Inverse folding.
């Protein structure tokens, strides 16, 4: 292929390839156990697959309505009302998206303008900053410190300026496994009073929460709901990350702007999958057991790591476990993660990549959304290091 002869300024000069793509490829190249990118290595429910199959065979293969199938939006409205007590209008305030990533991008694009400031908490999921920058916004970073990774609300207050347009929350939190508490939400609610700051609440791991903790959705806090986009992912809830299906909730005024963008980003999402999920979601049992399902996996993994030199940082939610390797080596996180993959056959994610200044804390992230045999094999290797 001949080279492009012109010149252009990159819109994202500091951004390379996503760490998830990089580490999954490295794992494949070296035949390593892949605990890096977050995805289950077990199957989606056969019932759900059959539903998709049947809807396809029955001819539901053309465009769904732009905001998503009404019947799916209705089930979501019921679910959110039952779980969190928020009454979203399924017609005007719920939109089906191609995964949470598209919902996040669309929400940011619909309200962030040149020089708007967006507060994000680091380590931060990798899609937030590029989306902010592509819209001319300015990320304002607040660091969460190990081992607890709690938010210092005084610091957040100090970072608010007249340009602050948005705060991005993520609980349960990827990559750390920390979760927001009621006191966090109450403080936030209190200090946002009288401002027009918007919240973007990334709640893709809403059901993956452990040790009898409650998920503190923004949907539980009326004053936050009225200023929030809330984003969810069926990929996490139904073990189907490859289906790229999620949704966004927002009050009508914000949803109007969201839809203006959504219709030109994807227009609409996969029709047969929406039909199938609408049916599947009606049975609460298909998601209420997820917390204990993943808690067992977390516990299996950390029990199998007993005796290893890795130090366990508590994970209260998500399907990620952070391990501190400071008693093994002082290598940089990226270097150690690469060496673990190439020399020991186990791939993880260096947490430093989730900080704009590549903050080093000798911690790696391991995904435990895996069969027990995969976790056992991985732990056996880690115990020998
Ligand atoms: N937000 C967070 C915190 C995530 O971890 C992920 C994916 N793992 C997403 C958003 C994106 O979700 P989806 O795959 O549905 O786009
Ligand atoms: N969210 C997943 C993770 O944190 C990966 C998603 C992706 O590959 N973009 O591992």
């Amino acid at each position: 292929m001949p080279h492009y002869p012109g010149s252009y300024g990159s819109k994202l000069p500091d951004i390379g390839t996503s760490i998830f793509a990089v580490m999954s490829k490295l794992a494949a190249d070296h035949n390593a156990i892949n605990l890096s990118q977050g995805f289950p290595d077990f199957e989606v429910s056969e019932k759900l697959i059959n539903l998709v199959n049947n809807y396809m065979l029955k001819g539901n293969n053309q465009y769904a309505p732009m905001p998503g199938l009404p019947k799916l939006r209705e089930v979501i409205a019921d679910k959110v009302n039952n779980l969190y007590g928020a009454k979203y209008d399924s017609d005007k305030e719920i939109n089906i998206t191609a995964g949470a990533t598209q919902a996040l991008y669309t929400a940011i694009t619909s309200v962030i303008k040149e020089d708007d400031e967006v507060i994000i908490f680091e380590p931060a999921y990798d899609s937030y900053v590029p989306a902010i920058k592509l819209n001319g916004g300015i990320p304002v970073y607040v660091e969460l410190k190990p081992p607890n990774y709690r938010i210092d609300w005084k610091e957040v207050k100090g970072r608010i300026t007249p340009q602050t347009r948005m705060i991005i929350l993520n609980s349960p939190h990827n990559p750390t496994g920390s979760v927001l508490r009621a006191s966090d939400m109450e403080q936030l609610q209190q200090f946002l009073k009288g401002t027009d700051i918007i919240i973007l609440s990334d709640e893709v791991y809403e059901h993956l929460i452990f040790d009898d903790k409650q998920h503190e959705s923004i949907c539980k806090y009326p004053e936050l709901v009225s200023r929030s986009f809330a984003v969810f992912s069926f990929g996490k809830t139904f073990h189907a990350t490859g289906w790229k299906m999620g949704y966004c909730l927002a009050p009508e005024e914000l949803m109007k702007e969201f839809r203006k963008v959504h219709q030109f980003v994807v227009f609409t999402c996969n029709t047969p999958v929406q039909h199938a999920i609408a049916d599947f979601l009606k049975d609460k049992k298909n998601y209420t057991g997820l917390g204990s399902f993943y808690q067992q996996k977390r516990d299996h993994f950390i029990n199998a790591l007993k005796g290893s030199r890795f130090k366990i940082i508590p994970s209260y939610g998500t399907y990620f476990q952070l391990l501190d390797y400071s008693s093994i080596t002082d290598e940089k996180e990226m270097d150690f993660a690469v060496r673990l993959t190439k020399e020991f056959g186990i791939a993880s994610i260096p947490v430093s990549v989730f900080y704009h200044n590549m903050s080093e804390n000798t911690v790696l992230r391991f995904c435990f959304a895996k069969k027990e045999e995969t976790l056992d094999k991985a732990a056996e290797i880690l115990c020998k290091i």
About this structure: The chain has 15 helices and 13 strands. The chain has a mean pLDDT of 97. The first helix runs from residue 19 to 29. The CA atoms of residues 54 and 130 lie 38 Å apart.
